């Protein structure tokens, strides 16, 4: 998939913990949690085996997974982690794009953010996704 522009592509559908601002009874939830009925199934070519990544821990957060994935993938070499987000769903996601205080790859690339390890970058080329863009 996308071999003309992407050397390696990982579509991850592992159980990851994330905040749930829609419920005071369940402040966190896990996407793709086992034994829970989901409206949609993971894409057929998605990574769903928990042992695929040596760093994966059950219950880890999405943010922790992204950091660990960047370290694992880059192997301390320069690398770009392309991440698709729906910025209109979360203030934190919006700030990942709009903040003037973050370290960017370049001043004219507001959709880039330096990863914590210092040798890779989070690239958000699509940050205005809607649910319909992904699932329909």
Automatic annotation (TrEMBL):
It comes from the Bacteria. Gene3D superfamilies: HUPs. One of its GO terms (biological process) is cellular response to oxygen levels. InterPro entries: Rossmann-like_a/b/a_fold. Signal peptide: none annotated. This is Phosphoadenosine phosphosulphate reductase domain-containing protein.
């Amino acid at each position: 998939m996308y071999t003309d522009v992407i050397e390696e592509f990982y579509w991850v559908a592992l159980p990851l913990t994330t905040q749930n601002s829609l419920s005071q009874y369940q402040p966190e939830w896990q996407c793709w949690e086992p034994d829970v009925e989901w409206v949609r199934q993971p894409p057929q070519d998605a990574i769903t085996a928990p042992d695929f990544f040596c760093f994966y821990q059950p219950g880890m957060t999405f943010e922790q997974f992204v950091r660990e994935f960047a370290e694992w993938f880059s192997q301390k070499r320069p690398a770009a982690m392309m991440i698709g987000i729906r910025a209109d769903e979360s203030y934190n996601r919006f700030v990942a794009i709009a903040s003037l205080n973050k370290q960017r790859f370049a001043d004219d690339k507001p959709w880039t953010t330096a990863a914590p390890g210092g040798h890779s970058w989070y690239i958000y080329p699509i940050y205005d996704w809607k649910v319909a863009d992904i699932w329909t």
